[in-house]
Amino acid sequence: MILQKETLSGGSADFPGYRPAYPVDLHCHTTRSDGADTPQQLIDHAADLGMKVIAITDHDIRPPKEIEIVNNTGADAPAGGTSDSAVSRKRVDAVDYARSRGLLLLRGIEISCETTVEDCHIVCFGCDWDDPFFDKLEREVVESKIRSYRELVRRLDADGMRMTWEEVLENGGNPIREDQVQKKMIFELMARKGYQPDWSAAKLLVKNSPAYQVLRQKPDPVSVIREIHRCGGIAIMAHPFLVNEPVRLPASTMEDRTDDGTGGTEEAGMPGNMTGPAAGTMTRAAYIDRLIEAGLDGIEACYPYTKTSYGGTMPPGDIEREIRGRYTDRVSIISGGSDYHADFKKGVKPEKARIIGEAGITMGYFENCALLQKVAARA
Questions:
Q1: What phi, psi does 312 have (nearest 5°)?
Q2: What is the pTM of this model?
Q3: Alpha carbons 216 and 117: distance in angstroms, whole number
Q4: Mean pLDDT across the stretch 283-306?
């Protein structure tokens, strides 16, 4: 059963007439990865919309303990703009700032997993963020992203979609360092140059074109789940239906994950056919089963699939019902989130821009979920 939405009474100048359907959004991004809102702007937008709980879950980078707060004093601001003397900046505790705006902020991370699989993402909360695991993760992710994304840009350019690495780093007028690059920025560049109608179409093109499959080293999700638990946190699988079927894995990985040691048997959820000398396949359901067996705490059910690179035909409501029916009794958290990126700032059409609170969970569910309350108590 899909939880009843709770339309809120808030409002925001950036989202005129919009009212969030859910007061708790457990999946949002900022400029720390590929979002366009700073952490302060995300919190301010959420507060203006009347949200109750918001999460920062940037890609492969720990959440901020402190954030920069920028205030326009207005006294010395010129007409139609601001001046440096009219702006004050200070660093404050992120959770405290959210609390001052009437919000509970959950600090999290979205970890990209599985080298041979696109969109296997694990959202994590409640961790000891000072654990050396995150130092190693961030270092290795940066190295693998730069290597593989440079090669993807080279291949796209060679195929006539003219672009340079420097244009990717220019990021549509919001320059980034090389160690901040995200794959979505390449998709956004493809859209800005007119090679695809929008970033999601560009992602689908790359995702479904063998010539553009430049694999980057990503951690094994089973290992990530175990490490997150060791760090005191919880692990939730994001947008499971963005994982394409069949799920293709290296043969060695299939062998490692076969409980009886026979290496990719049908009992392990793997069909007998092999797609190549170093590859095996399994269904999405079997793949998720593996993560649950490894201790996965939750799975994201409520999610705006029609505004992403989802290539299937099931409506989001049907996907949510299937996930709830299949996993409610098998995991502790049935999660939800908008995957907000402030797309409206990047020229994305309004009907395709993800908005805070359009997907999420109810306050009642949040308050009655033991694991989420455990995370909230640590905030």
A1: -85, -170
A2: 0.85
A3: 10
A4: 98
